[in-house]
Amino acid sequence: MDQAQASGAKPGHPPPQSTLHEVRTAENSAAFLLPKLRSMKESNAHLKLLDVGCGSGTISTSFAKLIPDGQVTGIDVNANIIPRARAVAEKAGVENIEFQQGSVFQLPFDDETFDITWCHQVLVHIANPWDALREMLRVTKRGGIVAAREGDYESECVWPELPGLTAFHGLMAGLMIAGGGTPAAGRQLLSWALKAGAERRQIELGYSAQSYNTPNERTILSQGMCQQLRGGGFRDRALKFGLEVKEDFEEMAKAWEEWAQREDATLSSLHAEILVQK
Amino acid sequence: MDQAQASGAKPGHPPPQSTLHEVRTAENSAAFLLPKLRSMKESNAHLKLLDVGCGSGTISTSFAKLIPDGQVTGIDVNANIIPRARAVAEKAGVENIEFQQGSVFQLPFDDETFDITWCHQVLVHIANPWDALREMLRVTKRGGIVAAREGDYESECVWPELPGLTAFHGLMAGLMIAGGGTPAAGRQLLSWALKAGAERRQIELGYSAQSYNTPNERTILSQGMCQQLRGGGFRDRALKFGLEVKEDFEEMAKAWEEWAQREDATLSSLHAEILVQK
């Protein structure tokens, strides 16, 4: 979520591209976890759930609604996003939730604190993601679950093939690598969980498609990208990572606008999903 | 299915790599179509369904079980596979089914014959796939459905990264292109349906992941690939298309065997799915 702040949003207020991130809920982003969450809730209504890299807290808030007698904790490395997450939860009338700043590499919690420890689009952005997963396993109770969903950007299918979108894809992959992450995260998620100390028999692995096909979905995606391209968010990140910025950001924004208008337009990518039974 | 015959299988008997194709059913390959099929069946128990490119008929046969008072027709361009499809249906005790040879570009049926016209992994292999879809629309009744599911091979995620598998991916993509198809089929499926004359409002588009992650799934995939690599199926196709065969087929087969044994191994790809309401 650091790019949200880099583009000048005030804490507690929706950042310019918030729609793209804030449409995310447990239902649309953690569907694979929900059957397990519901069965765990049947034997324990007071589940404790940790959302690692919670950002503006829309997923955390929807988790809190699903476990009204439980407790959700959202944590994000970016302190500036925490007030926005609190505002999202307050607006939703959710009280069984708290947010705090912290790093996935040093979670400020005792061993075996949570029944469910969750992250989404976090490991894709960091170096040594297995250390993050090891830390998530540490704070999870025995009999609990670590659940992660990470995209594989190299799997992304986009149509039509517009030069501005091809350039954009290269820019984004470069930013992921420069930031220590990888555009081939999804396919490695299982291997990272094994490297974190989980055994294969503890891990359920699946994939789902995340797509933007309807006019409304295409508009949300296109607007989010254009706001980052024209507002300087992506340029600031590139400069921060010391990348030489050759791309024409306005050309990329126009390509996203054209894409959103085309009736033959589609975008989809694979997301890997693991449930690790501790 | 032509590669099945190229490797020397006898009509009516399982071809060597049959397991890989013959695990396919309506339930695992046409899940997105089944809710629509069930609702159509409620108002008409006598649905007529056409399976275009039916191959060895396992999907056709499971469709026939789902509409016991309806009628399934399977058609394949390869006459040699038809006896095998009949044997599969007979073994399953299914009688409301028939198979015949024919081309998707000239379907031997009157206009508006079928309630549901289906294909899977057919358009990916042919030039001018919009002509095939136009023909599928022609033989479908008004108020009926054309349904297609086509993979996007370029989206495929494989881990670990073994050199033999990278070489294999290049070989397969080359074979698809040489045969007139494309390894980027899935992302183009919507555009092909539009080019076939459907309007955007008639088309529902989605994507699903097809994955091989469990030991059993990995074994089935690996054995299917090894049989084609060692049995000459892929080599015969390459030579048929006039491709220069430089690859070491045995090295690729060994890579598949190693992949099947690795506990960190995974493979997934996006498949596009359309329902066109005629």
UniProtKB/TrEMBL annotation, chains A, B:
User: One Pfam family name from the record?
Assistant: Methyltransf_31
Q: Name all Methyltransferase domain ranges.
A: 44-154
Gene3D superfamilies, alphabetically? Vaccinia Virus protein VP39
Instruction: Identify the stretch(es) annotated as Disordered.
Output: 1-21
Q: Which GO terms describe its molecular function?
A: sterol 24-C-methyltransferase activity
Note the coiled coil stretches, chain numbering: none
Alphabetical UniProt keywords = Transferase
Q: Which GO terms describe its cellular component?
A: endoplasmic reticulum
Per the record, the similarity remark reads: Belongs to the class I-like SAM-binding methyltransferase superfamily. Erg6/SMT family.
Can you name this protein? Methyltransferase domain-containing protein
Organism field: Orbilia ellipsospora
